[in-house]
Structures are given as structure tokens and as C-alpha cells.
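Quick illustration, no need to memorize.
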Amino acid sequence: MISIRKWTYALTAALVIVLLAGMVGMQNARAEDNGLGRTPVLGWSSWSFIRENPTAAKMEAQALALQTSGLQKLGYQYVNLDDFWYQCPGPQGPNVDLYGRWVTDSSRFPAQGDTNGIKVLADYIHSLGMKFGIYVTPGISRQAVSRNTPIKGTSYTAAQIAEPSVAEANYNCKGMVRINYNKPGAQAFINSWVDMLATWGVDYIKIDGMANSNAPDVKAWSTAIRQSGRPMLLDVTQGSYTQALAPTLMKYANQWEFAPDVECYRCEKGGSSYPLTSWADVAKRFNYVAEWQPYAGPGGFNDYDSIEVGNGSNNGITPVERQTQLSLWALAAAPFILGVDLTHLDPTDLEKYLKNTAVLAVDQDSIAARRVVNTGNRQVFAKREPNGDAIVGLFNTGREAARVSVSASAVGLSGNAGGYSLHDLWTGETKKAGGTISAVVPSHGVVLYRVRAD
């Protein structure tokens, strides 16, 4: 009987991934309505593994591996180029073109004839049936201000829209200053930026280093994307912003990351990016998931940073902790953006964890779970599905195995005389329960159930 149930749940999970995209658009009218990001993004980003050394060849290899691994067939479709794609001569800021926009580092991303190297890369990724993302930071380069470059299509210049005394957060290159959006030409400058990215074939823009004071930038980039005529998802990532920025994010962005980086920079050894993360860096997310839950929904999702599952021991977290990271992100309906080296995937990580369609369906339902238990080392997150099922994650953040329990009523299930079926989404096993949902959970582990009334 268990084998039949396993097959049934696997089939259901696969169908949910396909069908929910058409259902979730009706659930949250508050979010950005540009038609994008109706379900959490699935993809890969260069930062965690490649870090400061991206090249066209490395990006193409990762994109191809996303396809040949079978992950593309499950919905992983975004291949995102993070920092270090542009020329950075020093703290005076990124090199700029005639109109004050960043210049591609052609030594990393060579042009083909008159075709910019970033467009060459985007074209390759598109040829695989995937989408391409790129990284920017707010403001305008000091180089554009000192040269007083014209703003394309206007009579205004960079110096007329800049606030040189206010630095913006460009973590690695530096040299960006604030734009005053009350000045004529400011929006036109961002429009020209986005128009250029559109001609390159960009599908996703990550704007990094954002603070509460950058609300005008969020609106300006959203406006620019709309006027460009090209659908591009807008991802706003952290500098120092708080929930005070949430109304702006929900109105103008598709995705936002407010938590510190998940990468364990202090753990890295031998000049490599390994280990990618640590339990401590993953565990920080529990409170973030609880606090930001009200703001997530179709069109705009909370981003808890990269999924660091795929490279075995180089992940920096144990197999049990890998299940915990994936489960917490899935319950939160967070983007699954892989940070690992896709060209050297660990077979167990790939087949057992990343290709678990039952867990992936929990993420793609676009419903952010609430925390219903937070007692000592025991935490429970839960959400209700449109078909009446409850998804329940029993987490143990302690150092010893522990029993974690929650009542059916606490997760939104009313009394049911026949009890409930608890389907474990990691083991595939099903058991019966009455009014209490409970399991012995290993240290740093999770038991993730789909709960259905019998």
C-alpha cells in the first residue's frame, strides 16, 4: 500500500508544479502586477561558487550543466550573472560609456563583432531555453559625474542628477553616488540603463546594496523596465533595509532579499569558495521567514539567498541540514537559486534533494508558511494548500534528536473523526495520526509532511 501512496503523491507533486502557476495569480492582488514572478524563481547564480571571477566560458558551462543535469526540466530556468562583469578600474567607480552606463569587461565577456559580450552570453543561454539575469547597484558612477556624460535622449547630464556627497553601496568596485529623482533627467537615465540591458536580452535584474532610503530607486527601475517593453523580473537585494521598505517592494519588485549573505566567508579555505555555507548561516533564516511571511505572494517573494545544496561536503552543511534548508525555503515559497558548481554535482544531492518534486511543489505553490510553534529548539512552520492539504515542517534546531509536535488545529485543520494521513516528503512514507502531528526529528533536521484528512 505504501508503494501505491508513494506513486500517487509523486504524480500529484509533479502536477502541482505545472498547475499552480495558473492558479496563484488570483491569491494576492497586492504584489507587483507585471505578470512576472507569479511563482518563486528557480535557477542558479554565479556569486556563491564563481564569486569574483565570472567569465563567458564559466557561465556557459554552468548553464549547460543546468540543462544536462535534468534540473531545467523541473523548472530551473534562470542563469544569473552576479558582480564583476563590468570594468572597475578603482574606487572612482565603474567605467562608463558615452551615456554614463557601466561598460562590459570584454576580457571576461568578449564581443563577437559588434555584439556586446553580455548579449553574446545571453543569446547562448536563451538558445538553451533559459533566461538570463544580471547584477547592478543603485546610483550613478563617479566617473559619469566627473565626465558629466549626457543622458541619452535628453539635454540633461550626469552631474545634474547626481548627489556626489551621498555614496551608494557598490560592495566591490565602490564609486557609486546617489541619484536625485526630483531632478529632470533622473528617470531618463535609468530608462537608458534598462533599455541597454533589454537590447542585451536581460530577463532578470538584481539591484544590490539597497537600503530603506533607496525606495525611489526601486520605483525608478520598475518604471524603466515597464517602459522598455521587455519583461524583466526585478530583484532587490540587501544593503541594510528593513520591513519599512516592504510596501515599496511589494508594489514595484518581484523578489527581495533582506537577510545577510548565506555564504560562510569566514569558513572558506585555501582561496576557494568552499565550504559554501554553514549551519549557523542557514539557521539565521528561521526568524526572517517568520517575520517576513506577511509580505510574500504571487508577483513578489521573500528571497532568503542561495540554495547551497549540490556539491556534497563542499556545501558546508550535512545531509540532514540540506533537507532543512530546502524545506524551510520551500515552506516560505522562496526562490530556489542554486549557488553551487553545477558542473560537479554530487549524485545524492541531485537525485535525492534537488530533484525531489514533492518538496519543489511545496515551494511552487507560492504560499508563504506561518510559524506556529517556536519553543526552545522546536519550530513548526505550516501552510494550507488550495485543495485543503496542510504542509507542516517540524524543525529541530538543537544538538540532540527531539520530538516535535503540533496540533492539527494549530495548522488550520479542523477536527476530523477519521484522523489524518501524514506523508513524509523526504522519505516518501505515509502514516496515520489523530489530532496531533508529531515526529522525532534529528539534530538540525526536519520532518516535512503533507497532511490530508482521511
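Residues 1-29 have pLDDT under 50 and may be disordered.
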